[in-house]
Automatic annotation (TrEMBL):
The keyword Secreted does not apply. Pfam families: HMGL-like. Signal peptide: none annotated. Residues 1-27 are annotated as: Disordered. Keywords: Lyase, Metal-binding. PANTHER family: HYDROXYMETHYLGLUTARYL-COA LYASE. Residues 8-274 form the Pyruvate carboxyltransferase domain. One of its GO terms (molecular function) is lyase activity. This is Hydroxymethylglutaryl-CoA lyase. Belongs to the HMG-CoA lyase family.
Length: 304
């Protein structure tokens, strides 16, 4: 296919977004998962979040996990933070890439981080300054970008305004989260287009959940617009604890499998990634949704 990016950057979010929505797994298993992912060719891993342990007990051991990870020189690791305190913790732990989350939907933001969207945006300006002052980057992730589980559609203008405010305040890049899988290709096209009109210089990541089966279709729509930065989680682990019915992210191995066959490089060893997905399934103790984990890649045939 023509006019697609020659290469995408995949940020693996299974250890954070994935595991936050599973029964807590032991610290050893988290470290093993991140280390195994570090050997697959994935260039970026969202390793942990620094949130209140009462809100997300699954991330209570973030400091210990991060201190034990064998950091690979060719992998960039990041941490998600919800507020200033989380940012301080992440920087103290040595992270140099932060992601700060805010929901375009006020209701979701209050459920998620106990603040209005405007209050979070005020905090984000301080978090960006703090990160930059300590030599780190800070991406703003706008959740509920294509809809809120509590309030339905969120106007595109509102989503762009929230992201643009953080960009004006110095965010190094932006990401749109489809928290509960409400995006469809035309909605992706519209939001990406409007965001770029307002912020032509800002690099953009997209974070899709497959809750309604449109995850890879949304990726294709975004690729056709030249977007080359996607989140995905190994095996399709994941969800959002503050979004009833949310299911996992698009599966990393499904993303790699599809785009590589379209001539878009990822740098990822697909067989190695599938092996990690199988291991992740054992860790969480239930079947993960990834179809490529079940069926194998199209290049893997069976004897007649
Ligand atoms: C944001 C808070 C902390 C507000 O929680 P709060 O209760 O409003 O916090 P507070 O500021 O009032 O402080 C109360 C106490 O908590 C402490 N505290 C304050 N902050 C922290 C922190 N970061 N880590 C540890 N402790 C913290 C603080 O120090 C204080 O301690 P005390 O003085 O009473 O002893 C809480 O609501 C929270 O942790 N929420 C996190 C929710 C979350 O992690 N959601 C999932 C991630 S978002 C997501 O998955 C979506 C995404 C990114 O994937 C994209 C998409 O799909 O859309």
């Amino acid at each position: 296919m023509s006019d697609l990016p020659g290469r995408i950057s995949l940020r693996e979010v299974g250890p954070r977004d994935g595991l936050q929505n599973e029964e807590p797994v032991p610290t050893d298993a988290k470290v093993e998962l991140i280390d195994a992912l570090s050997r697959t060719g994935v260039g970026r891993i969202e390793a942990v979040s620094f949130v209140h342990p009462r809100a997300i007990p699954q991330m209570a051991d973030a400091d210990e996990v991060w201190s034990r990870v064998r950091r690979a020189g060719d992998v960039r690791y990041s941490a998600l933070v919800p507020n200033l305190r989380g940012a301080e913790r992440a920087l103290d732990a040595g992270f140099t890439e932060l992601e700060v989350v805010v929901s375009a939907s006020d209701t979701h933001n209050r459920k998620n981080v106990n603040r209005s969207t405007e209050e979070s945006l005020d905090d984000i300006a301080k978090i960006i300054d703090l990160a930059h002052g300590r030599g780190a980057t800070c991406q703003v992730i706008v959740s509920t970008a294509w809809g809120c589980p509590y309030g339905g559609d969120v106007p595109v203008e509102r989503v762009v305004a929230v992201a643009s405010r953080a960009v004006r305040d110095g965010a190094d890049s932006a990401s749109f989260g489809d928290t509960t899988g409400m995006a469809t290709p035309p909605r992706v096209t519209r939001l990406v287009g409007e965001f770029r009109m307002a912020n032509p210089e800002t690099s953009l990541n997209l974070h899709f959940h497959n809750t309604r089966g449109t995850g890879l279709a949304n990726v294709l729509a975004a690729l056709q617009l030249g977007v080359a930065d996607f989140d995905a989680s190994v095996g399709g682990l994941g969800g959002c604890p503050y979004a009833p019915g949310a299911t996992g992210n698009i599966a990393s191995e499904e993303l790699v499998h599809m785009v590589e066959d379209m001539g878009v490089a990822t740098g990822v060893d697909l067989d190695a990634l599938i092996d990690v997905a199988a291991r992740a399934e054992t860790m969480v103790g239930h079947t993960l949704p990834s179809q490529v984990l079940r069926a194998g890649p199209r290049s893997r045939t069976i004897s007649p």
